[in-house]
Amino acid sequence: MTGGLFRLITAVLTILGSVTLLPAVGHAQPNGSGASAPKFLKLTLDAIAPGTVTTSSDPMLTVSGTVTNIGDRVVDDVAVRIQRAAPVDSPSGLRSSLRLDQVNYEVTGPFQDVAERLSPGQRKQFSVRIALRPGGEGASLGLTDPGVYPLLLNVNGEPAYGTQARLDDARFLLPVLGLPGTGSEEGGAAPVPAPADATPVATTLIWPLADRPRMVAGRPGSANGQAELLDDELAVSVGKGGRLEQLVAALESVAPGPGRERGVASSVCIAIDPDLVSTVQTMTRGYRVLASPSDPEGATREGTGAASAQAWLDRLRALAGSMCTVALPFAQVDVSALAAVNDPGLSARALLAPADVVDAILGTQSLRGISLPDSGSIDDPAGQLLRGHGYGTAVLASTAVTSDDAPSDTENALTSAPVTLEPGVVVGGEQAAPDVVRVPGVSIAPPAAAPATTDPALRVTTFDIWSATALAAVGSNPPTPSFTPSKVRFDVTNDSRAARLQDALGAMAWTALNPAADRPRSQLLMPPQQWGANREEGIALLKQVELLTRNNLASPRSFADLVAQAPDPRPFTLEYLPRAAQDAAPERFVPPIHAQGARITELMRALVELPESELTPHAFMTPAREDLLRALSLSDRRTDDDTQADLHAQRRIDQATRELDDMFASVSVLPPGGVYTLASEQSPLLLVARNELPVAIRVQFRIEAPAETNITDIGEQLLPPSGTRSFQIPTEVSDSRKLVIPISLTTPDGVALGEPTSVSVRSNAYGQALAIITACAGILLLLLAGRRLWRRFRGQPDPADEGFERH
574 near 383, Cβ under 8 Å? Predict the structure, then answer.
């Protein structure tokens, strides 16, 4: 009976066309439910006004958006409404509130019709208005106090063969710094300002400028050669309307100038990837682009971005001259992987050179001794590496350090074990605020702005992960940072850019609006290094800092002042976050990069800088080191599928390896043709060595002399750039037979260069046998001559004279 009823119900549903209507995926989707539900409508937010509510704002909230039919059925009676949840009451709520089910958005407005019918592929724009405060005739959001409020825009419709239901929604945060009045009529409410008794939040904003590595690997430095890029996307990025151009344009809106106060600009520090600015600088001199990025050895074409590169660099140079700048690790290198490689030359290029590169190109003086690892989390060897290279401070995520004497924050709980620190490392941080603390029993490093001392301790300044996660979602191609806890990770690309910007504005305002005794009144705002915010979004974020300042909720604080703060005495230890380890450069790249880094160092020791040579050994070999560092870049590794990142990294390692093979093979002994005949047993051996490198090199001959020869070691010799040189090797050969003498070149340290060769030698001497015969003949001659003289002296005729007559 039961089975028959089931079959009957199934048949009816099949005829009528059953529909499962569930909320859409995205950050509107709690707990990931409904991933397999049919999709009929897509709701996209286009604009929210006001983006931040103040006492002088419009009392009405206006939300504009677009509804698109993305299914294969007609949808009738499409309508939208606004709903509101309770204000965010914890930092983690800035993220988790965006996953609440719609029933948690208890304050609801009325439905507003959008379209009577939407056919597949059809879209319709709309605008919804609702009062912020209660008291008027219409519906309102019921706001009574400042705070950060989660809002939901709900779209309902009736798809063909279905019933009226919620087909999609969009969530966003609305920061409310104060409430506007409700009018001057009788009974109108007065404005509600932000709390005046709280200390303004000291606010610092990092403004990153970085890009994925673009240089083609395996191209050594040259005096006049053109650079080669994988593609010409960087020309688009620095050109009008490009990503990097818009980030600079947003900064220009607040840059100090005549008649303009520093204001927000004093809280901003531009964090610059030296790989980016050095690549852009090479573009200004003309460059080539691969016709196919997947074929590094293939054809190239002329790059088109030289003028755009120069214009962008000039604008950045002007900004750097009036604002704080700090250099990022080269090419967003994974500092923990760099520590595992453990190559001094690579470490120096990645950590010591960046500030010099940025300063030289931009003509500025950047902050020194401050490291901003791209991952926001490092292990203990990475901390030791930074300390050993003169860094006084590392800027890390607030969850990348843990306190030994503070209660555990359940929102920030970690599964990894603390990293054991060696003596001399000072680790500090703040939970949701960037104060510096230390490990007891070790000395404190001086502030970054103070004169350097011999104290090698490393301090840590932390940034709030919740605002950093929200800032990372702003713009195009938003990543989810490694430090974002797994339970609140979701694909933010399902949300519109307008919604993601609102979330960032809310996150920036939350600390200012929620004073608490256990939370310091300070915040370090840290976007991702490869940030996709456009000009309008960047200006909106900068204006948010200005708005917080104007409402006495924030005060600008320079980055130099932040890192110069006195350390907190609470004990902390480093935590290498599990997700950071998952997103890191793979361990399998460490051995080959270490091996090739060692080869670069070996060759560098042999190269010689000549006054008359335009190209120096450093300029010639630096691109090889940079190729290996780019293989350790964290760029594009914040995805579930890092196959492409691994492919590009492996390709760089392979190309760098082949180029180094060619360099070592470029210095060799020219093999002589035929048999080399010595004029005598002590004639010198004539050899010719060739150096195809564009720089001079010191070499030594390695000659495996046979027992029959004695070949003098002529010691260290210099080969000119791109030339040959003849050598006379003093040689003694004691055998007239043809001898084969193996010969090769090495560096002064004994590292093999080029392919070994051999010389076939034959001497005109008879060797030891000839000497014995000659000696015997001489002795015999002396004996015979002596015998004859003796007989003559005694007057006895010599038998040999018989038959001869005297005359």
Answer: yes
